[in-house]
């Protein structure tokens, strides 16, 4: 068994360079944890010209004007830049004017598939240029979906990559390609085996990157055990449940962690008052501070509910908006931070106009300070997701003693256990059905419990001591890499 693995990590967003969601956190923290566990890791990601400041991140140019032979017709030039996530852990950036530099946002172009096809070839080409004889190429979500496919086709004879095994991690199965998979006309549906179209060919936009990855990867993983089970069913499988079920023996679930160093209420510089589970009473001072700052009614005893997810259907805003008014009548305060769908944000603004000192909505701010300040000030964290591959914010909230109220779905099932009044066990309040009534019921249970000060403090203390760092998940990934290397070797022996 190889002890020190060479791992290439390919991701479309890596914090602190670029971020739209949890994927960026995983792409930052998991490579670091792997490195700390003695593995050799490098990360590859795009250079979004208008998002990533080369000078601020000290990026250096390593290869200039490299021609990528995407296919017989398309030759695309790229540059490669290098920065570091930590000493000894390089991040390589792929630069190309047309596909990445001129863009203000990470995604959302009408030629998404063309962009990511270029990226995927560029990533594989870089590994060859570096002569990095990787054991594992670990890809994330649809943007990197052609990498496992290319490893079995176009790049199968590459000297550097011939022994590399690919892992494809699903962070959200809804996203399979540039366009919505359900908008692809039936006749144009990608069955996953045909030759890839040229860059300018419109039919390229119908290629299903996630499907190709699932069909080609040596192992597939997703970000919680429960979501692994769910995506093999028609309800959650987003039309790919059959192929996932067929590859069940190669499909694994590993729950995400959070970076325990950067999310620690004991020394978080963003808080008004630092605390840990021994001094949790100081949380109230953070509450007062935030109430003043956001012009809410200042009252230490008033429960605050915090929400810090994207304001979308997935995150349960369909339900939240239905119960906001009766909730606000109960005598509590609500703080919401996140961007998302206009219809929900407009509704939130409307409630703010009506209940000025009771509810605020703040746009997403990449500055971690305000986010953790909300966890430090709030009593209850709400995440009533429709589907949730893992969910990261409930883990951060728990570390700050902010008790989660969640729907029992995906990773929320794995990370939050429902509080049981009789045994006194549990780490939050959860409900089953995706309807506003069930959500309301769960919040009421939490609020009732909140009234009993001692019981609530005991709950906070217990929840803050839960262990959700990356250490164990990173070890599980290493075991998965080792397994992926074995799965294929066995196959070879049989031949
Ligand atoms: C996606 C999922 C979320 C998960 C994150 C990181 O954003 O929606 O549940 O936590 O990826 O894996």
TrEMBL record:
Family indicated by similarity: Belongs to the glycosyltransferase 1 family. Bacterial/plant glycogen synthase subfamily.
Enzyme Commission designation: 2.4.1.21
Domain Glycosyl transferase family, residue spans: 298-457
Domain Starch synthase catalytic: from-to ranges: 6-245
Cited SUPFAM superfamilies: UDP-Glycosyltransferase/glycogen phosphorylase
Entry keyword Magnesium: no
Molecular functions (GO terms): alpha-1,4-glucan glucosyltransferase (ADP-glucose donor) activity; alpha-1,4-glucan glucosyltransferase (UDP-glucose donor) activity
Superkingdom assignment: Bacteria
Organism: Candidatus Falkowbacteria bacterium RIFOXYA2_FULL_47_19
BP terms from Gene Ontology: glycogen biosynthetic process
HAMAP family per record: Glycogen_synth (MF_00484)
Record carries keyword Ligase: no
One protein family per Pfam: Glyco_transf_5
Catalyzed reactions: [(1->4)-alpha-D-glucosyl](n) + ADP-alpha-D-glucose = [(1->4)-alpha-D-glucosyl](n+1) + ADP + H(+)
CDD domains for the chain: GT5_Glycogen_synthase_DULL1-like
Annotated ADP-alpha-D-glucose binding sites: 19
Role summary: Synthesizes alpha-1,4-glucan chains using ADP-glucose.
Involved pathway(s): Glycan biosynthesis; glycogen biosynthesis
Matches recorded under InterPro entries: Glyco_trans_1, GS/SS, Starch_synth_cat_dom
Name this protein carries in UniProt: Glycogen synthase
Classification of source organism: Bacteria, Candidatus Falkowiibacteriota
Keywords recorded for this protein, A-Z: Glycogen biosynthesis, Glycosyltransferase, Transferase
């Amino acid at each position: 068994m190889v002890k020190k693995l060479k791992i290439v990590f390919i991701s479309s967003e890596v914090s602190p360079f670029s971020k739209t969601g949890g994927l960026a956190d995983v792409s930052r923290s998991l490579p670091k944890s792997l490195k700390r566990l003695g593995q050799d890791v490098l990360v590859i990601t795009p250079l979004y010209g208008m998002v990533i400041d080369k000078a601020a991140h000290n990026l250096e140019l390593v290869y200039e004007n490299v021609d990528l032979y995407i296919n017989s017709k398309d030759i695309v030039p790229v540059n490669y830049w290098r920065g570091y996530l930590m000493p000894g852990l390089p991040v390589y950036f792929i630069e190309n004017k047309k596909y990445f530099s001129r863009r203000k946002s990470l995604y959302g172009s009408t030629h998404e598939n063309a962009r990511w096809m270029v990226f995927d070839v560029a990533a594989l080409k870089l590994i060859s240029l570096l002569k990095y004889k990787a054991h594992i190429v670990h890809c994330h979500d649809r943007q990197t979906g052609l990498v496992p496919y290319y490893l079995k086709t176009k790049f199968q004879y590459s000297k550097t990559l011939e022994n590399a095994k690919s892992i494809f991690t699903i962070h959200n199965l809804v996203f399979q390609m540039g366009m919505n998979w359900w908008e692809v006309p039936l006749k144009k549906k990608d069955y996953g085996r045909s030759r890839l179209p040229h860059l300018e060919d419109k039919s390229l936009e119908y290629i299903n990157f996630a499907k190709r990855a699932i069909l080609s990867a040596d192992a597939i993983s997703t970000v919680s055990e429960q979501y692994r089970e769910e995506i093999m069913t028609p309800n959650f499988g987003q039309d790919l449940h059959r192929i996932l079920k067929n590859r069940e023996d190669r499909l694994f679930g590993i729950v995400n962690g959070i970076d325990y160093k950067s999310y620690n209420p004991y020394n978080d510089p963003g808080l008004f008052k630092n605390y840990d589970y021994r001094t949790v009473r100081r949380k109230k001072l953070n509450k007062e501070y935030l109430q003043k700052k956001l012009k809410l009614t200042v009252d230490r005893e008033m429960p605050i509910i915090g929400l810090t997810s994207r304001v979308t259907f997935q995150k349960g805003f369909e339900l939240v908006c239905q119960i906001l008014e009766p909730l606000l009548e109960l005598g509590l305060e609500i703080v919401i931070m996140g961007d998302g769908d206009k219809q929900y944000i407009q509704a939130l603004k409307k409630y703010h106009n009506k209940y000025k000192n009771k509810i605020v909505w703040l746009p997403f701010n990449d500055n971690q300070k305000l986010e953790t300040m909300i966890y430090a000030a709030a009593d209850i964290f709400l995440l009533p997701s429709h589907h949730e591959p893992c969910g990261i914010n409930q883990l951060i909230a728990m570390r700050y003693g902010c008790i989660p109220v969640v729907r029992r779905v995906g990773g929320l099932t794995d990370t939050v256990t429902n509080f049981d009044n009789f045994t006194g066990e549990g780490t939050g309040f959860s409900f089953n059905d995706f309807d506003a009534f069930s959500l309301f019921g769960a919040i009421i249970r939490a609020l009732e419990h909140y009234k009993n000060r001692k019981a609530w403090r005991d709950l906070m203390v217990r929840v803050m001591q839960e262990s959700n760092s990356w250490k164990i998940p990173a070890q599980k990934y290493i075991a998965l890499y080792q397994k992926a290397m074995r799965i294929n070797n066995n196959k070879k022996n049989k031949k």
